[in-house]
Amino acid sequence: MTRPPGGGPLLDGMVPKHEQLRALLTEQVTTRLRPGDALPGERRLCLEHGVSRITVRAAIGQLVSDGLLVRVRGKGTFVAGRTARSSLHIASFSEDMRRMGLTPTTAVLSVERGVPAAVTAAAFGLAGGEAAHHVRRLRLADGAPMAVDDAWYHPGLAPDLDRRDLSGSIYRMLAEQYGREIDHAEQTAGAVEAGAEVAALLGIPLGRAVLTFDRLSSSGGRVVEHARSWYRADRYELRMSLDRQHSG
Q1: CA atoms within 13 A of residue 43's CA, in its CB half-sphere
Q2: Which H or E element spans position 95?
Q3: Span 190-223, pLDDT tens digits
Q4: DSSP for 16-49?
Q5: What SS3 class is residue 77?
Q6: What does DSSP assign to residue 55?
Q7: How far apart are CA 47 and CA 45, in angstroms?
Q8: Which of 40-54, 60-74, 87-101, 170-184 has the lowest mean pLDDT?
Q9: Which residues contact 199 (CB under 8 A, 6 or more apart)?
Q10: Which of 132, 114, 112 is nearest to 123 (CA)?
Q11: Which among 208, 209, 217 has a CA at the least distance from the CA of 188?
Q12: DSSP 115-169
């Protein structure tokens, strides 16, 4: 048996204590505390939840990595600003935001069938002039605009996609409804100045720098999605772990 987040000693069970504590702290950070607020000290957390200092440090370390907390040498640990920090991995926008303690929502801007650009058609293996699904969506986190997605989907791998509810995770839909779990992606990241439409949708000044992502997502060796996204650079950042490669 485990104790749900809410305070008091954590109990032994299938969920490790550092994961229980991480969930509890995530709930506190995202619903009760504000950016800049100090987190209780390690000793207090140990006493309140009946866990070791190693457990506390593991939970806090993960939240620091997720961008929810920030350590200040000699002063303590504080709630970070609401910039979303994502590590490079395959996940839907919804999964990514929830992992960071944010609530994702989606506004569907348009859904239609059209002829994609040559590079998209080639990635899908479509004949010239063959139509595909074209979906444009505004993605929000905690009710504030975060990204604009402009994506094409293979018509044969998701044949009636344009008749479904696309306000949730399309990756989950591809897996559950079509048996097409996204297991590989090729992505290029860059930065551009926001054009008029993107700026208006994201609520930023025209010409403000935004992060761009161009992504081909595949399932079982077949390209299912070709998406381009524009993210607010003041609300979203990437985190990467880098290792030196040694040559012989």
Answers
A1: 1
A2: helix 93-99
A3: 999 999 999 999 988 899 899 999 999 999 999 9
A4: -HHHHHHHHHHHHHHHT--TTPBPPPHHHHHHHH
A5: strand
A6: H
A7: 5
A8: 87-101
A9: 205, 206, 207, 208
A10: 132
A11: 217
A12: PPPHHHHHHHTPPTT--EEEEEEEEEETTEEEEEEEEEE-TTTSTTGGGS--SS-
Structure tokens at 34: 């504000």
Maximum CA extent, the chain? 67
* Contact call for residues 137 and 165 (beta carbons, < 8 A): no
Q: Is the dihedral of CA 125, 216, 91, 209 positive or negative?
A: negative
List the structure tokens of 230.
Answer: 């524009």
Q: How far apart are CA 56 and CA 42, in angstroms?
A: 6
Q: Residue 2 above 70 pLDDT?
A: no
Q: Which tokens is 117 given?
A: 């650009």
Question: Can you tell me the mean pLDDT for 7-13?
Answer: 63
Contact indicator for 220, 183 with CB cutoff of 8 Å: yes
3-class SS of residue 235: coil
| 3-state DSSP of 155-210 | CCCCCCHHHCCCCCCHHHHHHHHHCCCCCEEEEEEEEEECCHHHHHHHCCCCCCEE
pTM of the predicted structure, to 2 decimals = 0.64
The rounded distance, in Å, linking the Cα atoms of 174 and 37 is 40
Residue pLDDT, tens place only, 66-109: 667 878 878 888 887 655 555 555 667 877 777 777 788 999 99
